[in-house]
From TrEMBL:
This is Enoyl-CoA hydratase family protein. Belongs to the enoyl-CoA hydratase/isomerase family. PANTHER family: ENOYL-COA HYDRATASE, POLYKETIDE BIOSYNTHESIS ENOYL-COA HYDRATASE PKSH-RELATED. InterPro entries: ClpP/crotonase-like_dom_sf, Enoyl-CoA_hydra/iso, Enoyl-CoA_hydra_C, Enoyl-CoA_Hydratase/Isomerase. It comes from the Bacteria.
Length: 244
């Protein structure tokens, strides 16, 4: 079964996360297939830019708790999005949770509809937003991130744009996206590649400095007793034992 749909129009390759039965959760298989699709886009001179979108009502629900990718595989995918020498533009028309927010922050530009919602739910299942911090911390307002990391609160698209998680949001996401795509189609491939390298440099420094430590932290937390309780409670649709 194909987990990532691919279409192309005037040099823009659209990659669609297409696993709506589990809300496009980041399974090992989905992470691997998306990485392969991005590699193909990077090697194809006919691709000027990549749009990353989704089917169903959820961009991504975060890690697949039944088949999670190894932390280093998710690190590799996030780094690949940041490093690929073509703009990657997120198009969101649904909900984004946990690891899905790291995927969104890895993209160079993010646009969404106004009915999209966002939440860092890790603390509610006994883990921390460790690996995804590699893309989030360099690009998002630190005070807002502290609030949403620590509370797991849900927030809306205008707030996501205010704190730097999104570039823009609007009633019609494709109307928001249109001038972005027009811009990259008018830009030279060489200029896009070099400009992206300028923009990505500080984020890649974070990967070089912190990826190993955050990967180890993620692995340790996911194997902990509190994480087992939190994930079991989530799957059983009940509160975990620590809720007051």
């Amino acid at each position: 079964m194909t987990l990532v749909g691919r279409t192309r129009a005037r040099g823009v390759e659209t990659l669609s996360l297409d696993c709506p039965h589990n809300r496009n959760a980041l399974s090992a298989a989905l992470v691997g297939e998306l990485g392969d699709a991005l590699t193909a886009c990077a090697e194809d001179d006919g691709v000027r830019a990549v749009v990353l979108t989704h089917t169903g009502n959820t961009f991504s629900a975060g890690a697949d708790l039944r088949d999670p990718p190894p932390p280093d595989a998710l690190v590799g995918l996030l780094r690949q999005i940041v490093r690929v020498d073509k703009p990657v533009i997120a198009r969101v028309t649904g909900h984004v949770r946990a690891g899905g927010l790291g995927l969104l922050a890895a993209c160079d530009i993010g646009v969404s509809s106004l009915d999209a919602t966002f939440a860092f739910t890790e603390v509610r299942v006994g883990v921390a937003p460790a690996v995804i911090s590699l893309t989030l911390l360099p690009r998002t307002d630190p005070r807002a991130l502290a609030r949403y990391y620590l509370t797991g609160e849900r927030f809306d698209a205008p707030e996501a744009a205010r704190i730097g998680l999104l570039t823009a949001a609007g009633d019609d996401v494709d109307a928001v996206l249109a001038p972005v795509l027009d811009g990259v189609r008018r830009a030279s491939p060489q200029a896009l590649a070099e400009t992206k390298r300028l923009l990505a440099a500080r984020v890649l420094e974070t990967f070089d400095r912190d990826a190993a430590d955050l990967t180890a932290l993620s692995a340790r937390l996911f194997s902990s007793a509190q994480a087992r309780e939190g994930m079991t409670a989530f799957l059983e649709r009940r509160d975990p034992a620590w809720v007051l």
